[in-house]
Design goal:
alpha/beta; 153 residues; three-stranded parallel sheet; 14% strand
Length: 153
Amino acid sequence: MKTTMVLYLHGINVRGPGYSDRLHEYLQERVDDTDTRLVQAEVYWGDLFSPAQSKLNELVQDKRLWWKGLRRLTLGIVAQTLGYADTPGFGAYDAINERVAQVIRMVSQRFHEVDGIIVVGHSLGGVIATNYLWAARYPKGIFKDVTWWSDVQ
């Protein structure tokens, strides 16, 4: 039997694990191939932003920021987007990529052989998925043979 991992990466403002359960059930019901086993692999990365998001929530609760509903949504988006900072060594980029790698390793070890991976990313989860796949393909970046001016100084 062929094993295909369906890797889910959520977007902004997801409160915890389990966000992909209904979508995975939907996919399971519609896969006709009896030779394929779909394995759900969910990456929850929202907790990696907890300190920054807690500080912003504190400002909202102390009424130091106005328009509560709009502020909470906007600040959550800003905090998570800035906190991700899609550059190695900044923000939560490395921690999130490591979490993605851990989930893939865990599923691969449990099922011994994964024949393929389908990546489903929503919103910032799509950016994370793209960056992870790019980094896996080009671990030293596409400019690995370029000498940067900052390296010369």
